[in-house]
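ok so for the tutorial part 2 we go from a plain amino acid sequence to predicted structure tokens. step 1 is just haveing the sequence, like this:
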Amino acid sequence: MKKFLSTFAVCLVLVESFIFFGGWQLFDFNRHWYLAGGSVALLLAIFASVWERQDQRLSALEEQIKELENQKEKQQ
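step 2 — the prediction. this is what the tokens look like for a chain of 76 residues:
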């Protein structure tokens, strides 16, 4: 959860600075622009967390394959 919150904080800062420096012209944020930015940052943080988790799982699978290959070589 701590890692997700740090990812969310980074996304929130990036989105809010994007909106502050002219990004508001791309979207219709007439009222509650900070809430819209927060929701966009939340979606970005979710996607980034899922992406990072998939990368961790892929790395774990690669390590398991290497271990299995080493065991197979030792048996032969």
